[in-house]
C-alpha cells in the first residue's frame, strides 16, 4: 500500500507535502510530484498539508484518479528526490482545481 499524488498537483506543485514526510519519499518532476511507493510508509501526514487536495491513500483513490497509482510508480524511478519545500509554480492558483490536467504532465 502507498499514498498517491494525483492530477491536481500538475502545474501547482505546492510542495507543502515534502516538509512533513518522515521518510523523504517524494520525487520531483518539472510540474508534478510523485510518491515512491517503495518508500512510503502510509503515515498519511501529507494528506492534509496539500492545498490542492491531491494526495490520496491508494484505496481511497477516486475512480478517475486510479491511473495515478501506476504514474507515481513509473515516474518515481526518474524524478529526483526532494526533501524541502520550495515556491509553488507561478500559476498554481490558476491551475488549482482545473480538470483534465493529465495532458499537461511533463514526464
Ligand atoms: Fe503537489 Fe500538493 Fe505536494 S500540489 S507538491 S501534492 S502539496
From TrEMBL:
Where is the signal peptide, in residue numbers?
Answer: none
Cofactor(s) listed in the protein's UniProt record? [4Fe-4S] cluster; [3Fe-4S] cluster
Enumerate composition-biased segments (Basic and acidic residues). Answer: 87-96
| Family matches, as PROSITE patterns | 4FE4S_FER_1, 4FE4S_FER_2
Q: Which residues cross the membrane?
A: none
Ranges for the 4Fe-4S ferredoxin-type domain? 1-30, 31-60
Q: Name one Pfam family in it.
A: DUF3470
Any one GO molecular-function label of the UniProt entry: electron transfer activity
Instruction: Give positions of region: Disordered.
Output: 82-107
Q: Which UniProt keywords apply?
A: 3Fe-4S, 4Fe-4S, Electron transport, Iron, Iron-sulfur, Metal-binding, Repeat, Transport
For this protein, the record's SUPFAM superfamilies field holds:
4Fe-4S ferredoxins (SSF54862)
Stated role: Ferredoxins are iron-sulfur proteins that transfer electrons in a wide variety of metabolic reactions.
Q: Indicate what this protein is called per its UniProt record.
A: Ferredoxin
Q: Which organism is it from?
A: Candidatus Kinetoplastidibacterium desouzai TCC079E
Amino acid at each position: 500500500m502507498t499514498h498517491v499524488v494525483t492530477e491536481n498537483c500538475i502545474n501547482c506543485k505546492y510542495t507543502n507535502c515534502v516538509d512533513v514526510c518522515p521518510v523523504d519519499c517524494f520525487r520531483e518532476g518539472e510540474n508534478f510530484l510523485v510518491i515512491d511507493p517503495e518508500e512510503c510508509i502510509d503515515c498519511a501526514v501529507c494528506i492534509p498539508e496539500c492545498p490542492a487536495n491531491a494526495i490520496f491513500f491508494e484505496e481511497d483513490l477516486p475512480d478517475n484518479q486510479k491511473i495515478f497509482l501506476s504514474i507515481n510508480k513509473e515516474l518515481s524511478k526518474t524524478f529526483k528526490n526532494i526533501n524541502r519545500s520550495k515556491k509553488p509554480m507561478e500559476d498554481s492558483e490558476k491551475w488549482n482545481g482545473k480538470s483534465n490536467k493529465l495532458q499537461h504532465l511533463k514526464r
